[in-house]
Design goal:
Blueprint: H1 3-31, H2 37-53, H3 55-66, H4 71-97, E1 100-102, E2 112-119, E3 122-126, H5 134-145, E4 149-153, H6 159-172, E5 178-181, H7 185-192, E6 198-202, H8 205-216, E7 222-225, E8 231-234, H9 240-252, E9 264-268, H10 272-286, H11 302-317, E10 321-324, E11 342-345, E12 362-368, H12 371-379, E13 386-390, H13 394-403, E14 408-411, E15 432-433, H14 438-444, E16 446-453, H15 471-480
Parallel strand pairs: 3-4, 3-6, 4-5, 6-7, 8-9, 8-13, 9-12, 11-12, 13-14
Antiparallel strand pairs: 1-2, 2-16, 7-15, 10-11
Helix pairs in contact: 1-7, 2-4, 2-5, 3-4, 3-6, 4-5, 9-10
């Protein structure tokens, strides 16, 4: 058998295995359709403790997948948020599960109305490569809190992490409770075609469209956590050192390979040189020569490294000025794949880096005449996943919040809104659909079922029965139709 045939057979086997696991999870859910709070909390705590116990293995695995990944990028960006989400869900799930009393209204009296939160069934979770633990265990925490079974499709770009996480999961869960699926793009396509009760996808907008299309064939509801070009606005008055200090981690953590990383900066024309000088100083202070710094992460693979280099070449060819903030000024090594922030000046809309999410250590600077132009610039483009404003001017803060749309906002900070456990996270338009985190995460994976209950003696519903036009019916209509 040829190598191509072997590869095809392996893909078909993985797709078949995925479907068989789905069927087993569906049967297991039907046998236990409403897990009690104690069992949900037990699962959440078991996973949290296992992640903490194996954190060194996970950090090492993620570094292997990236070629090199800073330990604290993994600890702060993956492990800590995953652990916090699991702890948060375990702490609140009993309260979330309680049925809620609602008003029946005069027309339905006497009756009791309540909302019961019921698990959906089998949830699919498709995970990208940039934060493989946070974006698998995070959604899983809310799916388990809501009482569901879950299948998780990991990225083919993180094989070492997948292996460690898979071993960890198998020690805690039966395959009909939680299952990890590995494999290539064909396996992912087959995965998204399963008739899940809910499907959560984190990744690019382009792939998100395909996932939504596949889910539509089964009428599967989706949560899409996508990306887009998240802008930073810098006002005319904030001290530049403060503005740069508040945004530089957002651009440099994980080498900018974050869906909510600052994608470009809008700032007054007269402050461009000031920004370049402040950012270059701050980068040198924090990272120095990136090739020798273990605190700086590599680009995930050769293809993404080449994509970023192509964007920079395209910008230069079209008249942009590219400034390398690496104080060593070293030529990027395609084997090491480390690249300091590249500041890009004189950008135009026809450049590749202004037409697509950058997802790497490149930061274009867009000079504006005033705040009106900056806000209009954002309004005329697809709605971003995040928006960042560097300003202490409260009137400007209110104006930006009122006149722009985005998945989330940080004022005088970047990234950190995603760490707010008790608040929802999600995109809008091309940057996503739906949301999770906070109680909204529990609701995303639950069916809020309305239950109306009447007693055995008096039923006002009979007033709606024929024959129509009785005196009582006419009086009711006169009372309520006004």
């Amino acid at each position: 058998m040829t190598i191509q045939k072997l590869a095809l057979a392996r893909k078909q086997h993985e797709a078949l295995r995925s479907h068989q696991i789905f069927l087993r999870q569906r049967q297991a859910f039907l046998a236990d359709p409403m897990p009690d709070a104690a069992s949900r909390i037990r699962r959440l705590n078991a996973l949290r403790k296992a992640i903490v116990a194996h954190r060194d293995d996970l950090v090492l695995a993620m570094s292997r997948d990236f070629g090199h990944r800073a330990d604290y990028d993994s600890l702060l960006g993956d492990i800590l948020p995953a652990v916090n989400s699991l702890r948060y869900c375990a702490r609140h799930v009993r309260r979330w599960m309680r049925p809620e009393r609602r008003r029946a209204g005069m027309l339905l009296l006497p009756a009791r109305v309540r909302v019961v939160y019921q698990p959906l069934g089998v949830v699919g979770i498709i995970v990208p490569w940039n934060f493989p633990l946070m974006l698998s265990a995070g959604p899983l925490a809310f799916a388990l809190a809501a009482g569901n079974r879950a299948m998780i499709k990991m990225s083919e770009f993180t094989p070492a992490t997948n292996k460690v996480l898979g071993c960890l999961m198998r020690k805690i869960f039966r395959e009909d409770e939680v299952a990890l699926i590995d494999g290539s793009i064909e396996v992912a396509q087959a995965f998204s075609r399963q008739p899940f009760d809910h499907l959560l996808f984190t990744g690019s907008t382009a792939v998100g469209r395909h996932v939504m299309h596949a889910a539509a064939d089964n009428l599967t509801p989706v949560t899409l956590e996508l990306g887009g070009k998240s802008p930073v606005i810098i006002d005319a008055d904030i001290p530049m050192d403060i503005a740069v200090a508040r945004l530089i981690l957002g651009k440099c953590m994980n080498a900018g390979q974050i869906c909510i990383a600052p994608d470009y900066v809008l700032l007054p024309k007269q402050r461009v040189d000031e920004f370049v000088a402040a950012y270059t100083r701050a980068f040198a202070d924090r990272y120095g020569n990136v090739s020798d710094n273990p605190d700086y992460t590599s680009i995930i693979n050769e293809a993404h490294f080449r994509r970023i280099q192509d964007c920079l070449k395209d910008a230069r060819d079209k008249g942009a000025v590219v400034i390398d903030t690496d104080p060593g000024g070293s030529v990027p090594d395609p084997d090491q794949r480390k690249l300091a922030t590249q500041l890009v000046l004189k950008v135009t809309d026809d450049m590749m880096l202004m037409q697509q999410e950058i997802f790497g250590p490149v930061l274009p600077l867009v000079a504006c005449g005033n705040m009106d132009q900056a806000i209009e610039y954002i309004q005329q483009r697809p709605r971003p996943l995040a928006l960042y404003l560097m300003s202490f001017d409260r009137s400007l803060q209110r104006r930006v919040l009122a006149e722009t749309h985005s998945g989330g906002v940080c004022i005088n900070d970047t990234l950190m809104h995603v760490s707010a456990d008790d608040a929802p996270f999600g995109g809008i338009g091309p940057s996503g659909m739906g949301q999770y985190h906070g109680r909204e995460g529990f609701l995303a994976f639950s069916k809020a079922k309305t239950v109306l209950k009447r007693g055995c003696f008096f039923n006002t519903g009979r007033m709606a029965h024929p024959p129509y036009g009785t005196l009582l019916q006419r009086l009711l209509l006169k009372l309520f139709l006004r």
